[in-house]
Write a structure and sequence with these properties.
Largest sheet: 8 strands, antiparallel
Helix content: 10-25%
Structural class: alpha+beta
Shape: globular
Distance between the termini: 151 Å
Number of strands: 14
Strand content: 35-45%
Length: about 240
């Protein structure tokens, strides 16, 4: 019985040692879970630049209401409803246009007097031009360099509502704007050209006047008289 007890004790101790060894065995390391890298967010495209809207066309201010037919020396004709009349600020139309009502009258002369009439009181104008011999040239020394100019006066016959025999006397240039957007610019009393000389003339010098420039301007006016200059104007008021 004593041997059997010792044997049981040895078995128990051996089992304990085995169990202890099992407890000391390291468990295999668990690999860390690697989260998949987040996909890079694609950069948003740069916003397209805003396209500025086209400016709206400027509205034409109406200050006239009549029908006109303009015939030019070069054979062209413009006709239609005139919605705007403007007059040059100066005789040579170099400082722009005015639409002031007091400056939009047409000056005519005849029967020993002058009249300033609205365009609706004009029925028709017939205008003719002479050749080169009718061109008058001069210079203006108030300009530096000197300003040279050549002018051809027209021959005109103006019919007005109240009747009588009249001629155009207004030296300014005119501009009609038609309902369809077309415009026409014209003189009725004269046509002209001017230009400053290239250098400053010497005082009391025989070469002070530029004869070549005179000739150039004279030829220009004579040529203009054959081109797009007014020959006949007919107006019908509403």
């Amino acid at each position: 019985m004593r041997k059997i007890g010792q044997s049981l004790l040895l078995v128990v101790l051996a089992a304990g040692l085995v169990a202890g060894k099992k407890k000391n065995v390291e468990e295999p390391a668990v690999a860390p879970v690697v989260e998949p890298a987040a996909e890079e967010v694609a950069a948003e495209p740069a916003p397209e630049p805003e396209v500025e809207p086209e400016p709206e066309p400027e509205m034409v201010k109406h200050n006239a209401d009549f029908t006109a037919k303009l015939t030019f020396v070069d054979g062209q004709t413009t006709a239609g409803h005139v919605i705007r009349v403007e007059r040059s600020d100066d005789w040579f139309a170099e400082r722009g246009w005015t639409d002031k009502e007091v400056k939009l009258t047409v000056t005519v002369e005849g029967n020993g007097t002058e009249k300033d009439l609205p365009w609706t009181d004009i029925k028709s104008m017939d205008i003719s031009y002479d050749g080169t011999s009718a061109v008058d040239c001069t210079y203006d020394s108030e300009f530096t360099p000197i300003m040279y100019m050549c002018v051809m006066k027209t021959h005109s016959k103006v019919a007005i509502v109240e009747g009588g025999s009249w001629a155009a006397a207004g030296r300014h240039k005119w501009k009609f704007t038609f309902e369809d957007g077309n415009t026409e610019e014209f003189w009725i009393y004269k046509i002209s050209a001017r230009e400053q000389e290239a250098g400053v003339a010497k005082i009391n010098d025989d070469s002070g006047q530029d004869t070549a420039l005179y000739q150039k301007l004279q030829n220009q006016v004579a040529e203009d008289a054959k081109g797009h200059v007014l020959k006949r104007l007919e107006i019908t008021a509403p």
